[in-house]
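Weekly structure sync, notes
Attendees: PL (lead), two postdocs, one rotation student
Agenda item 3: pending single-chain targets
PL asked that the sequence for the first pending target be pasted directly into the notes so everyone works from the same version. It is reproduced below exactly as submitted, 198 residues in total.
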Amino acid sequence: MLKNFHVSFNEIGTDEAGRGCLAGPVTAAAVVLPENFTNTLLNDSKKLSEIKRFSLKPIIEEFALSFAVTHIEPLIIDDINILNASILAMQKSVLKLDTTARHIIVDGNRFKPMKNYSYDCIIKGDGKYMSIAAASILAKTYRDEVMNVLHEEFPMYNWKQNKGYPTKEHRAAIRKYGITKYHRKSFRQLPEQLKINI
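Predicted structure, written out during the meeting:
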């Protein structure tokens, strides 16, 4: 059972989705839940089916005291790198919130200080704290919706199914069709890119 951190004020949970993808944005969400919020289905988004994630999305949006989502596009990812882009997406989401909460709990082990906020990085936090789990679900579902739209423009990559992750099918499509404006040029799109023929 997930829990809310036992402190005297509401905390901001934040997480990202799409960090390991070859195409599409990296997306982060920030969520503030009521202190007594409980939901037996809520868990790390990676442990839930797509149907369960999308069924939880409106529940989180209804009961959250505040929530926000940010997409960082491939051009910026290529410019500042994926770690910095992921942190930027989380920070931008936090700043969009309508809340007096000033303590952030971050999934993972990396974050950057923000003026007027304190924070804790929590390894596998999306499996330990409800607000981070809620953020992971919103980040994942909002990003999936973006990839479904991009799929309509470039159906040959089947982003509706693989969401931009480096599946065999996705890489086969890159070999056949090349990359699009939505691909991250700083990422190794194909394994053989690092091989040198002598």
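Discussion points:
- Helices lie at 50-63, 74-80, 82-96, 130-153, 159-162, 168-177.
- The longest helix spans residues 130-153.
Action: rotation student to compare against the earlier draft before next sync.
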